[in-house]
Amino acid sequence: MSSLIVAIDRKLFNALKRLKRKNVKLLIFITATLNLILFVLYLHHYEHSSLQDNIVVNSLYSLFSIMQDADEDVITSAAILYHKLNFNTEAKWINRYYLHENLLTVPYGNRKNERLESINDLEFYDSDPRLSWSVYLNYLINNEENFEEMPFSWYDWMDFDMYNKLLSVRHSNENNFTCEFAFKPSFDFDTLKSIESALQERLFEFEHEKYDDRNTYQQISKVRNNVDIEKSCQTVPGGPFQLPFNVTTLVDSVRPEMYFINAKNYLLHNFNNPISITILEGGKNSYRVNIDQHDNSNMIQSGLLKQFVEEQTSKQSNRNKNIEFDHISFYENFLKTDIASKLRIEIPYCNKDIFNKNLVDLSIDDFAFDVAERIKGLRHDLQTFNNLTRHDLNYLSSLENSININPALAPKYFNEARNILQFKSLGHHRDKRFFNGPTTEGSVEYADRLNSLIRTFQKFTISNGIVSWLSHGTLYSHLYDGLAFPWDNDFDLQMPISHLHYMAQYFNQSIILEDPREGNGRFLLDVGSSISVRTKGNGLNNIDARFIDIDSGIYIDITGLSFSSEPIPLNKRVSLLTADAMEAALVDETVKNPGDDIKNPELGAELAALTISELKIYVDEHPNEFATDQKKKIADMAKIEGKLPITSPSKGLTQLQRYLLNKRLQMVNCRNGHFSRFDMISPLSNSYYHGVPALIPNKVVTSLLKEYNLPANFDFLVYEGRAFEPKMKFWISVSNLRSAMNTAKDQNLEYIESTPDTLSFNDLLRAIKNLIKIGSHDYLSAFFNSLSMTNYRLKELEIMYDDSITADEKQIALQYLRTTVGPTISSPGKDPIIYTQEKNLWKSYEAKLSEEEKADIILYVEVNALNNFWEKFSDLYNNRLYDASGEVNLNEVGLDLFHNYKEQGMNIFAKDPNIN
Q: Where are the transmembrane segments (predicted)?
């Protein structure tokens, strides 16, 4: 192996020499360890070196803990930390969590760094996942013989950092913390300064500069709201874990830092507990734990933490020995217990094995669901056997409510934080209950949260055999590099209506906890209250369910596809139906003249049984029963119903006939009127997205052309201020790309001869080095961490669109790629909680380092990372990225889009690939 693949220019070399003179120990240590990593990667090819990498990395981070505890070498430990922060996405904590050093050491306030005597002295604590996991898993293990339900508090499973800071200065600011304080549009200047003086640090970071001087503050303090404080808040005694006010109504017409306080207070005291917690075991199994519905005590108030500490203390020979909250050990012990077997969920009719197949055939029956029959069956089981679970009962109640709602009258279920003030309308994409303002679009943390969100949802569906597939913009983004578009702020997935009901019955109102060995994600699965309604109706409930990150409010939109009476739209982009198919369906006798024995399963009872025309007549006859906005909406819908285009296949048909026509044509839709033919969806194909398995609809291009002007070529693209560079296999901001390409001919940067759309291999290296030089450190980290995913997607595209091989040959190659390379794909993003911890830790190290020391550490770590990164790119360039001795030589199969995307990538997205 060459000593360095990446040629380091003179300036970089001089920096290394300075570092060597200043700290020989650091240079020797970093050189040895990083070269060891490179050596392992060299001996064991990239796709097969994860075990060896883990051994090296774990050794490094164990050494970091020792160094940090001993405080022997700040520079060395800072270098290890910087490497992990930016170039390792494994969900491994860089330090350990102990009773004395962590839980009982006050993190802020006028008692900062004080060591408390016992847990009885705690008035707040951070929701470190290691603490929560350890205590609650220990409770489950100890109660496996007579377990019924587990205590729960939102406080133990969410980020309350800013709220805890207020609790830490409660005694010195008791007069400030009132209902009036909580509902002001922004902080009072003097109150904020008083709080931060007591804290000895900032209360929050987001747009804090607006409060830093009175002149700027005057601009944000001009905002007013019209909150009825008496109706929205109650004064209560303050105390441990309790500010002296109780928010009873969520009002989001305040700035984000104020709403954060309100939302957290509301969750603690006035929001229902979830029905259960679901613990994931990777993508293998799910374990559902019932939650006490009548108690919201946290682990101190419930006594669980006291029991844990006493039990762990009794197990030690030395009672003064510190207690570690080793959550992974508790988790793995839990998996071995009998209670885990009792709590494991197996859903009838759901097949986990589908994710082991290249192609997944769905049944047309998956898209039909008779709600009335399901209610009848559940009622029978309840009355005959009395064996319905808490989730079953909730599901039954939801169905009985849903089936009796007319689509025009269904109230909006999901609510976003739309009215947050001075937040650039970003609240539109956050759940109102879990809004956490500081997590802003475009930031590394936001990208990490999106990554955690989709990865955990995919593992959740896989572990339960629930079928869903990527759709809309999420499907579009997968097409290019297997990652979300950098400008997207949520994900879209679809599923058959039957699987939507499976998910609703077993997991609605469950907190889904990611396998702690893979991440610390915490999500609420929330299904809407009208899922039996399958038409657009009043348009307030186009989304059937959401998978919500409870630490930020960011979510996945989930929609079910089913047969319905929704009129088939005329799509200008692509024709979903041939004239012959339409004509044959319209003359079908069942469609033309449905008998009296044929019923529309959408219809419920009373008002829910009325068509929109019939409902309009009823409203006109009973105007006092409806609100003004309801009457207007129903009148508007009735007008639209009668104005279908003359060319619409649904024109002139009754509601029942439309339903039968759609079923005859095998046309399924979501509640927002997006239609697909059954054969556009099935068979689904197994792929990877964000490093985890994901299902993709059969006709990807056709599906995308319905909604987007999909470019036919796999080529250089510019959109939303970002450029897709095929050789980078990545979307990079146009401004950063200009700097990387050195369009200004800066002599301090590398000279680039080629253009962005004809970027040569050597210029690619120069461009990445330029990004480092201009301080765009996040891009090197993003390139490095996503490389295994983008390489996988590139090879998948090359195989799928190679028309020189048959569909069967493609399937053999795709299966080999999926089963041998797929499992080695690393997460393209860090766990958000670990990222935040390491980022804050890095800030503390920055305070101890000189600017020169910090610059040298960053430079040295990044040069070594670039060297590692470039080795992978060199393997790709030389067609030796994959092990050539296996069943399929992936280096040789498929197109060569990396080298020849201009020629071989032309028009490949003009049609669907022939893979089955």
A: 26-44
